[in-house]
Amino acid sequence: MDKIDRFEAANRKAEELRASLPRAVRARYDRRIGRVVITLSTNLEVAFAPRDAEGLEGASPAQLDAIEISPSGFGIHFPKLDADIYLPALLEGFLGSRKWIASRLGAQGGKSKSPAKAAAAKQNGRAGGRPRKREAAA
Question: Which fold has domain 3-95?
Answer without folding.
Answer: NE0471 N-terminal domain-like (3.30.2020)
